[in-house]
Amino acid sequence: MSEQQPFGEPGESDEFDAFDEIVDAETDRDPDLAVIEAGSRTLRTRAGSPQGDQVPARPADPEVDKALREVEAELATRWGETKLEPSVARISALMDVLGEPQRAYPSVHITGTNGKTSTARMIEALFGAFELRTGRYTSPHVQSITERISLDGAPIAPERFVATYQDIKPYVEMVDAAQEYRLSFFEVLTGMAYAAFADAPVDVAVVEVGMGGSWDATNVIDGSVAVITPIDLDHTDRLGATPADIAGEKSGVIKQGATVILAQQPVDAAQVMLKKAVEADATVAREGMEFGIVSREIAVGGQMLTLRGLGGEYPEVFLPLYGAHQAHNAAVALAAVEAFFGVGEQHARTLDADTVRAAFASVVSPGRLEVVRRSPTVVLDAAHNPAGARAAADGVSEAFGFSRLIGVVGTSDDKDVRSVLEAFEPVFAEIVVTQNSSHRAMDADALAAVAVEVFGDERVVVEPRLDDALEAAITLAEEESEFSGAGVLVTGSVITVGEARLLLGRG
Q1: Residue 188 and residue 144: Cα distance in Å, rounded?
Q2: Under a CB-based contact definition with an 8 Å cutoff, are residues 204 and 108 in contact?
Q3: Where are the beta strands (DSSP E) in 178-321?
Q4: Is the distance from CB of 435 to CB of 410 less than 8 angstroms?
Q5: Do 108 and 123 meet the contact criterion of CB atoms below 8 Å apart?
Q6: What does the DSSP 8-state code read for residue 32?
Q7: Alpha-carbon Rg for the chain in angstroms
Q8: How far is the first Cα of the chain from the last one, in angstroms, to the nearest whole number?
Q9: Side-chain half-sphere of 374: how many Cα atoms within 13 Å?
Q10: Dist. CA 239–CA 86, nearest whole Å
Q11: Which one, of 359, 368, 289, 235, lies nearest residue 41 by Cα?
């Protein structure tokens, strides 16, 4: 860790005034939450005034590329990420024979429905700016499997990815032989990440759950900080049919004595998580109460924020990402890093504001309202559930102001496709439905049938091949001439976005 002190100088007490508006604006809170909160500590500073592209291409070296493909092929023989046996028994057994590598460093554990990867990238950038060596584990990947494991803010080198797999492979096979079911694709990758972080070694790991929380493979860490991004309906067949049900699974990341950073949540979900925090004697910081967004303005290439942290205010923070949801992710990320450094409990001062600004200014989040082409502008967003689609629709409308927007949508067949399309209907002039190469992709004709019900027949174009769909959408956008302000949004799935990114020359 650097000798640089992360804390700034004390400010004036009137800096709290603007934040009072956030508290006053909390009009939809259930009074019953007060009963729950009475049994739990909250993080609120009380001591007076507040004291490059991340998506790698295939390896250029043919031998390295061959070795990586062989590892990918072996991993593909295991259960995919949608086939689960809800248990941490297998990953716990793997950690045991590996010597518990996940205990070699402190961790920030992130769950929620949307915003996990972007929030993880922001947390990673903040830690890096304060000269901590970081490991980040996120999923799914946009283009390369190596994106999932990052060291020092960059995807792990393919050579190191292969070497890590080969190192743990004998232990994986040992666990496979002893368990009822073999380790899954995600469980092996999780083991690889934890081993790579210990080997580096890292100062702190930033870990995103794969699904849920309680029985997720990542949940063998003791996250000193648990981050819960907004909860909405997704994976309802696995996690439950209501936000409260889903919160019950996701609150499993809250460990005894941890600090919980809670994004804005549905009231029933908040009740469940606060109850879990009480049981775990955890400290809670809630967006809109202990931290939040004081102000937000659209800026060229992103947005300018004033954030309220646990210890004070951070003005003039430039975030080079689009959408109000990313501003909320930034507030959550900042609070998580402050909590890790003890702000709010041990310290009543802010982190160094210039370092915070530099960190946020460096953030990238591929496939999240990412511009990959101009004339016409083509934007990629990995929204794949209704809440994500609503955020993407609002974000693209606010940031770009297209006179006419053409959608290219390819989804998985296990999603709430109708609700996703309904979220985009107000902003798409026309929609080109397609499908990606995954076996989970929804058939283009089946997707078109739903799209016609939502958009009407005249606004729907069907192009089963993604390359043809992109060409059709760009042609439609160009029909109003080069200077008309039309654009294209490619969305519906991380896989669709990743494949479009490759087709458009990014990666």
Answers
A1: 16
A2: yes
A3: 204-208, 225-228, 259-262, 283-286, 292-299, 302-308, 313-319
A4: yes
A5: yes
A6: T
A7: 22
A8: 33
A9: 1
A10: 10
A11: 289
Asked if 309 and 340 count as a contact pair (C-beta separation under 8 A), the reply is no
SS3 241: coil
> Which residue type sits at 75?
L
Helices 185-199 & 158-178, crossing angle to 10 degrees?
Answer: 120
Encode 206-235: b = buried (16+ Cβ within 10 Å), e = exposed.
bbbbbbbbbbbbbbbbebbbbbbbbbbbbb
Which amino acid, one-letter code, is at 487?
G
- How far apart (Å, rounded) are the C-alpha atoms in residues 109 and 226? 5
Interatomic CA distance for residues 158 and 148, integer angstroms:
12
Give me the phi and psi of 402, to 5 degrees please: -60, 140
Bridge-partner residues for 260, per DSSP? 226, 284
Q: Please, which residues have CB within 8 angstroms of residue 418's CB and are 6 or more apart in sequence?
A: 450, 453, 454
Fill in the DSSP letter of residue 443. Answer: P
Q: Could you say which DSSP state residue 291 is in? A: B
Entry pTM: 0.89
Distances (CA, A) of 184 to 75, 89, 113, 196: 8, 12, 22, 18
CA angle 204, 391, 443 (to 5 degrees): 100
Helix H, strand E, coil C: the string for 315-365 is EEEEECCCCHHHHHHHHHHHHHHHHHCCECCCECCCECHHHHHHHHHCCCC
Determine the residue type at 2. S
| E-state strands within 119-236 | 134-137, 149-151, 154-155, 204-208, 225-228
Q: Report CA dihedral (258, 18, 317, 253) to the nearest 10 degrees.
A: 20
> What is the widest separation between alpha-carbon atoms in the chain?
64
**DSSP sequence for 490-504:** EES-HHHHHHHHHHT
The mean pLDDT of 68-81, rounded to a whole number, is 93
What single-letter amino acid sits at 167? D
Whether the per-residue pLDDT at 51 is higher than 80: the answer is no
- Hunting for tokens 């996250």 — which residue is that? 223
Helix (H) or strand (E) holding 423: helix 417-424
Among 326, 298, 333, 496, smallest CA distance to 411 is for: 496
The size of the chain, in residues, is 507
Residue identified by tokens 């996690």 is 239
- The set of residues, in sequence order, having a beta carbon less than 8 Å from that of 99 and lying 6+ positions away, is none
| C-alpha atoms less than 13 angstroms from C-alpha of 195 in its C-beta half-sphere | 25
Q: Note the pLDDT tens digit of each residue in 149-185.
A: 999 999 999 999 999 999 999 999 999 999 999 999 9
DSSP 247: H
Tell me the per-residue pLDDT of 334-349, one tens digit each, with 9 for 90 and over. 999 999 999 977 667 8
Average pLDDT, integer, range 383-396: 93
CA–CA gap between residue 196 and residue 166 (Å, rounded): 12
